[in-house]
Structure prediction request, 222 residues.
Amino acid sequence: MGFSKQWNEQYRDNYHMSIWPWSKLVSLTMRMTDLRKANDDFAVMEVGCGAGANIPFFAAYTKTIYAIEGSAFIVNILKERFPQIAKNIFTGDFAKEWPVDKQFDLIVDRAASTHNTTPAIKEYLVQAHKHLNDDGILIITDWFSTEHNCFSYGEPTDDEYTKSDYETGPFANVGNVHYFNRKLIAELIADFELLHIEHLTSQVEGEDGAHACWNLVLKKRQ
Prediction:
């Protein structure tokens, strides 16, 4: 199972409408890719772009920006907000065949694939590998960790790493939430070269348990 229709309703209800680029994605992109020296042919694909928070960041360096987003509601808004790339923004499930015949220098995934099951994530990574240039980079941020406090609740599914039907907390009403450990990550990224990995935890005073996630930078393995 890929995209959850619950995300469409979240956007309709004005939730998860982030408009500022995510700092961790920005910092990893600037450190680990050639975007700073890029020309307008440098091709970027963002999967699960949501409300388009990262698009202005990439638009500062290149005109070749694509996105695949499952919510038709938010895609229509993005096409109006970013008319210069409207033809490159697709409604679709990035865990299935991508609706574009193109190779990319950079693919980014900010807390997008982590809302899928393990089989769907495997299919997504096949597509990402297929659509990367020979030296292309895949940046993934906010793959939720099995050490995240929310892993201990939510409804279990047939996939031991996926929970669903959260009624409260940060994952309320968003469908599937997938969690990763180091062993599973190693299995999933076997077709890529691992350039960078970090496991981050944070604790907010007054809240039970820690927020924990993985950030990765991968290169297409030849």
Notes: The beta strands are 44-47, 65-69, 89-91, 104-110, 132-144, 155-156, 162-164, 177-178, 192-202, 211-220. Residues 6-220 form a domain with the Rossmann fold fold (CATH 3.40.50.150).
